[in-house]
Amino acid sequence: MQLTKARLSALVVVTTAVGFIMASAGSIDWLRLLWTVLGTTLAAGGASAFNQLAEVRRDGLMSRTCNRPLPSGAMSLTHSFVFAMLLAFGGIAGLMVMVNLAAAGLALLTLLIYLFAYTPLKTRTSLNTLVGAICGAIPPMIGWVAATGRLDYGAWILALLLFVWQIPHFLALAWLYRKDYERGGFVMLPVIDPSGRLTGRVVVLMTLVLLPLGVAAALSGLAGWLYTFGSVALGLWMLRLGLRLNAQRSDSNARRVFVASLVYLPALLCLMVIDRGPAATGDDVPHLGVLAAVTSDLDDIAGQ
Prior knowledge:
Helix content: over 70%
Largest sheet: none
CATH class of the largest domain: Mainly Alpha
CATH topology of the largest domain: Tetracycline Repressor, domain 2
CATH architecture of the largest domain: Orthogonal Bundle
Structural class: mainly alpha
Radius of gyration: 20 Å
Low-confidence stretches: 284-299
Mean pLDDT: 91
C-alpha cells in the first residue's frame, strides 16, 4: 500500500471514474467502469512504485519519506521492481483488452511522462510541478475515452480543472516541507523562493483560474445550476485562502490552502456527478449547452 502511494492512487481512480460517468450520456456501463477503474488503479500503483525506486536515495534524506518501504529496508529493490512491473503491465494490458486501446494508450502516456519527464525534472527545475500536473490531468481523460472512445470538449474541461487544481495543492504542500525537499535535492518553487513571494502569487493566480474553469463545465452543458453555484462558492473559498497565504506566507496559511484543496476537489466532483447536465445525461441540447443557447439568443437579437 505504501509503495503504491494508495491515497494518491485513490484520487487518480476517483477522477477517472468521474470522467467515465460524465462521458456516459444516459445509462452508465458499470462493468466497463469497473474494468476502467481497476486498470487505472494498477497502472497508477505501478507508476508510484517505479517513482519510489528512482528516488530511493533522496527519499532516505527526507524525514517525510525516510520510512517508506525502500529507504527503510522493508522491501528489496528487486521485489519492488517486479511488483511495479506487474502492476503497470497488468493495468495497461487490462485497459487494452477489457476497455479500449485509447484508454490504455493514455495510461501508458501518463506512466511515461511521470517516470521519464516529471521524476528527473524534480531535481532540475521548479517547472516540474507543471509536468507533474499533466500526469494528474490525464486520468479523467482516460475515464472519458473509456466510455466514448473519443476525447470530447468535456474531457478537456475536466483535465484543465485537474491541471490547475494541482498547482496550489502541491505548492502549499511544498511550502510546508520546503526544508525537507531541499535536503532531498528537489528543486521545488518554495525551495528556490525562500521569501515565498512568487509561490504566493502563483497560488493566487491558479486559484483565480479555478473560478472560470469551474463554471465552464456548466456553460458546456456538463453540469447544472446547483453545481455552478457550488463551484463558485468553492472557488471563492480557495481564492480567499490563497490571498491570505500571499499576504502572510506562513505554514499555518499554507496548511489551510492544502486542506482546502483536499476538500475542494472531491466536493466539486461530487456536485458535478450529482447535478449532471444535459450534455452528460444524453438529453437534446445545443453542442455547447448554456453557452450555445446564449449565443443563439444574441444572434436572434442581432437579426431583429
